[in-house]
Description:
The protein is 48% helix and 10% strand. It is an alpha/beta fold. The strands form three sheets. It has an eight-stranded parallel sheet. Strands 5-7-11 form a three-stranded mixed sheet, with no helix packed on it. It starts with a helix and ends in a 17-residue tail after the last helix.
Amino acid sequence: MSQYQTQLDHFSSLCQSQGKTWQSISPEYASRMHLQNRFKTGLDIAKYTAKVMREDMAAYDADSSQYTQSLGCWHGFTAQQMMMAVKRHNKTTKRSYVYLSGWMVAALRSEFGPLPDQSMHEKTAVPALIEEIYTFLKQADARELDHLYKELDAAKAKGQDTTEILNKIDNFETHVVPIIADIDAGFGNEEATYLLAKQMIEAGACAIQIENQVSDAKQCGHQAGKVTVPHEDFLAKINAVRYAFLELGVEDGVIVARTDSLGASLTQKVPVSKAAGDLASQYTSYLDTTPVTSAADLQEGEMAIKLGGELQKPVRLDNGLYQFKAGTEKDRVVLDCVTSLQSGADLLWIETEKPNIEQIAELVNRVREQVPNAKLVYNNSPSFNWTLKFREQVYQQWQEQGKDLSTYPDPSTDAKVLMAPELDTTELATEADRLVQNFQRDSAREAGIFHHLITLPTYHTAALSTDILAEGYFGDAGMLAYVRDVQRQEIRREQASVKHQDLAGSNIGDTHKEYFSGENALKAGGEANTMNQF
């Protein structure tokens, strides 16, 4: 028996049990509304999407071509449009997620106005955005099912076979997909991290990403001045997130541990070692130090640590921070990754300064020597100049191969010469674009990247599309700028946004009015509605 019929039978029995008091309630309408809202709470979503993500991780372990992807969304509508587009073009939402960027929450969702990525925004804005995104994704479900119900009613009215339509309803694939949600550095101590993680999970998050920076000194991963914390501090926050998942019954919850050590040269405190070779002693071994012969060499407030059996004084900067030795960055990244995975994290995020597969693979392979199934979430960041970086890579490779580069400008004095538009059709640019196009597939295979995301794409698409429209509309093109560059394109691409009233819920509202008020319903739709011309 179909799911639709099972629900219908259930509500028929329920209505009959209430006698005449529910005589105006239609079991079919009730069953439709129930199916339109498959997920009743955020925890329902978190449990469902955690299972999806775990299955995807297992599929990737078996076959690296089964990597996953997402785009960062700063509003429920952008997430909704992304997933509706994925489903329309790919006929499935499988292996497609939503990324929630702390950067975009700070820049676009704070009541303080636009802020830098420094954890200055209200932390409650993060769970609020998770809930908003899932509200919009659930509405995409309701809208699509509403269309199928109307199709079903029309077929019934004509006496046509409804088997195919019922199959579509029974096998309906939801737009609700996993969200990887950024909790920054935890917004405080481990208790604060736990409390915020609970709110995020209750809103629907099945995957929480946390970084090893100092919470009150947090910087964007692609900016300078990053300060990392000792491993014990970071692992305590990983524990806090895991406890939050377990308390709420989301046993498959996913933790993404991000290390910023590749670009961080500072730490705020020197941990106390309790045993030779423990994490604290490994962390302090990377510090920049000077030798001391006795306590008499120390000034007030200074400390000494034992490294290799000798007393060393950590170099303390004028701002009170301690500095790591140059050249220890990769070793620190590997230690961060191994300890995180061995202490409850499920996935890694290595923040890099450029999108270079060889660099990423080198680090991942070192981690896999100790944790063979280590996997990455990787930031295909808009902070990278992808065009320039990949043209540089190709130029350098060809130079090493002895290829004739005389027709290309020499980037040794100014790399930006490779950005010149006149190079766009050259062999070098074509090869660089090919590498960019294959970056996700190649790095999934060679560098252990399970999930590819772009943190801020919808920030940039909103800025670009608005700039293009404003230039034309307020310029010579006038109204043609909107008609030619927006509406005409939406119609030809068959986007749901063309019928914006329907997308915003007008037809769903009319359907519900019919359920509630019958023939007395005052509906917004009808032949006179302008959206019917589309």
